[in-house]
Specification:
Chain lengths: 124, 195
């Protein structure tokens, strides 16, 4: 893999495996913000002319016309989940998507939820 | 946090279930049998957080490993989305397991009686973590048939852990396993002990 560093210390970013980190501009700090099953839904469509939104951002906004999990977005766009978290963080911060976090563990106690899930599974 | 649960449009609540077990035991098959969507694959990139599990003695650089997980989805009305994740089969990816297990309602440990020991790590992991789980013995053709009690003994399971036979290819069978798991998790929820 041609991932060598040139004399100026810049990486030559032609390897496909590097590309996701270019999309995320090297940021990884947002990775812990969203769970794999955090659900995102578009609340404001993009016009395609916004500054700072990459094609991948636009693709997420288009995909999330119905709620989709981080894992699904990643699978549909063929991007690592960590990168999707970063992009989703951008879109959330700029008000394009709403994100619903999953139930924290302590809340997974709700009787109504168990009953609804059991009924739903039985009805499959 | 800014991205709480109440702002924005009404959205379903996502619930996570795990399908664990040894390599080739039928995890993805089971996910596919019960999922309403074709199983999807997502990749988590692990950096140095996996160090300490791999033998990296003398290696100073960060390593990056990509772990792929297959998953499926079942919508329960408009209110809930069940996500079923097949756990990566290799023990050195416990980091992903931790991330996956966080907030999970419960886990199915798939077992193959020809290689029962393959599911020991999963059983150990969920016992240690306190994640409710059931053991489903996938009935491969030609596999030795054991009584469920024998499987239970061989795995040294607690008396309350449900053990059942299943056919990972069958939607109905997978559904029964998930129902057993949700019932078990319901009985195990902390508030159940209080009343």
């Amino acid at each position: 893999m041609s991932n060598e560093v040139n004399p100026d210390g810049e990486r030559l970013l032609d390897a496909p495996t590097v590309r996701p980190y270019v999309i995320a501009r090297g940021r990884t700090e947002a990775q812990d913000r969203f769970d794999l099953i955090s659900l995102a839904v578009t609340v404001r469509p993009t016009t395609g002319t916004e500054i700072g939104l990459d094609p991948e951002h636009q693709a997420i906004v288009r995909l999330c016309r119905r709620p989709l999990s981080v894992a699904e977005i990643a699978a549909h766009l063929d991007l690592p989940a960590g990168i999707v978290r970063v992009l989703l963080g951008d879109l959330f911060d700029r008000g394009f998507v709403a994100v619903q976090q999953p139930q924290p563990e302590m809340d997974v106690l709700d009787e109504r939820m168990y009953k609804a899930v059991l009924d739903g599974l039985r009805a499959l | 946090m800014a991205f709480g649960r109440s702002d924005g449009p009404r959205m379903p609540t996502a619930i996570k279930l795990l399908i664990a077990g040894g390599f080739g035991v039928g995890k993805t098959t089971m996910v596919g049998a019960v999922s309403e969507i074709r199983p999807l694959r997502t990749e988590e990139t692990l950096t140095d957080r996996s160090v300490g599990v791999d033998d990296l003695s003398g290696v100073e650089e960060k390593t990056t490993t990509t772990v792929a997980m297959d998953f499926g989805r079942i919508s329960i009305g408009d209110d809930f989305m069940l996500y079923l994740f097949g756990t990566p089969g290799q023990e050195r990816f416990w980091f992903v397991w931790d991330e996956l297990a966080r907030g999970a309602l419960g886990a199915v440990v798939l077992a193959d009686t020809r290689r029962l020991a393959d599911c020991f790590p999963s059983v150990d992991y969920f016992e240690r973590r306190g994640t409710p789980f059931v053991v489903a013995v996938n009935c491969f053709e030609g596999a030795p048939v054991f009584e469920l009690d024998e499987v239970k003994m061989a795995l040294n399971l607690g008396p309350d852990v449900p053990v059942m036979l299943c056919d990972a290819r069958s939607r109905d069978s997978g559904k029964d396993v998930l129902i057993a798991l949700v019932k078990h998790a319901y009985g195990r929820r902390p508030s159940a002990a209080v009343g």
